[in-house]
Design goal:
alpha+beta, Outer membrane lipoprotein wza fold like, five-stranded mixed beta sheet, disordered N terminus
């Protein structure tokens, strides 16, 4: 009996010791970077590339333990700086770290210092702000003070307009040939994807979404957005307007489209489209689909000019509602 108690007590003590050691081992492993599994955090958003030096920037050059060689230098129009000792150095296109390494090589190659240690800090940018353009309410150039993300700049610019698309491009000053594209949708990871850091000189462009106007004898006439990569047909446009009223004349609809030769008008047999007898017709940005009433057709529809006038009223109402 005592033997069983002693064995049980020993097991309990062993489990207690092991249970106490496991957390400390895991903490130690994480601290020293071992391969022990740890909770995976949400993936960070897009990170801006290191900002490169450009003409007009102000650089703080610090040479360790040699203040007489340290200086504050402005990058000239050619992208060069003139060191107090060592001559000219082309720094445009380099990061601050790369510029510091280049200065170290000059000081060492010219035997000014044996083992120089140089740090470079961009204390002033020639372009202090980031441009927010496209479908925002207050486009302009906004100062970059500290670390801020894309959504913050959109907010500062008054938010997006009623015709804004979901695609946003960010062109970093340091890499103008490879803009970053971000889609502002309702996915759960939007906050992380849209957390791109904005740096001085960056350009943010909010895309514009296409718009189709569905007017006439419908439950909810108005303008409806078309995303750049989406396809919208006549039947779908009518569905967005919550369908037609019972008094609508489905065989006398008109599709008005702006072309290089002016506006054109095409008859659309909506009844045959909805019944599957005629193929559906794709609509484009700026199209006007007019659904007349079966009563008083001559008064309900008076041609292209009347439809355009109705469209202008919808646009004015939408603009006022978005303010």
């Amino acid at each position: 009996m005592n033997l069983k108690i002693d064995i049980a007590a020993g097991l309990l003590i062993s489990l207690t010791v092991v249970g106490g050691l496991v957390p400390s081992l895991r903490a130690g492993d994480e601290k020293h970077g071992s391969a022990v599994a740890a909770p995976v955090a949400d993936s960070p958003g897009p990170v801006a590339p290191a900002l490169c030096i450009a003409a007009g920037d102000m650089l703080d050059v610090n040479v360790f333990d040699t203040p007489e060689l340290s200086s504050r230098l402005r990058v000239d129009s050619n992208g060069d700086i003139t060191l107090p000792v060592g001559g000219d150095l082309h720094v445009a296109g380099k990061t601050a770290k790369e510029a510091g390494t280049a200065i170290e090589e000059i000081l060492q190659s010219q035997e000014i210092l044996k083992n120089p240690l140089v740090s470079v800090f961009i204390s002033e940018y020639a372009t202090q702000g980031a441009s927010v353009l496209g479908e925002v309410k207050v486009p302009g150039v906004y100062p970059v003070l500290g670390a801020h993300g894309l959504l913050e700049f959109i907010s500062v610019a008054g938010g997006v307009t009623a015709t804004a698309g979901k695609d946003v491009s960010i062109t970093h000053r340091s890499d103008p040939n490879h803009p970053l594209l971000i889609r502002l949708d309702n996915a759960r990871d939007l906050a992380s994807r849209a957390n791109a850091q904005i740096l001085p000189g960056d350009i943010i462009i909010i895309s514009r979404s296409g718009i189709v106007y569905v007017l006439g004898d419908l439950l909810r006439p108005g303008g409806f957005l078309i995303e750049n990569n989406n396809r919208l047909t006549v039947a779908q446009a009518v569905a967005l307007a919550m369908g037609t009223n019972r008094t609508a004349s489905l065989d006398h609809c008109r599709l008005i489209r702006r072309t290089t030769q002016g506006r054109t008008e095409t008859r659309v047999r909506l009844k045959r489209i909805l019944s599957g007898k005629d193929p559906d017709v794709e609509v484009e940005d700026g199209d006007i689909l007019f659904v007349p009433s079966s009563f008083g057709k001559a008064m309900a529809y008076r041609g292209i000019d009347a439809a355009v006038t109705m469209t202008q009223s919808v646009v004015a109402f939408s603009a006022a509602s978005s303010l």
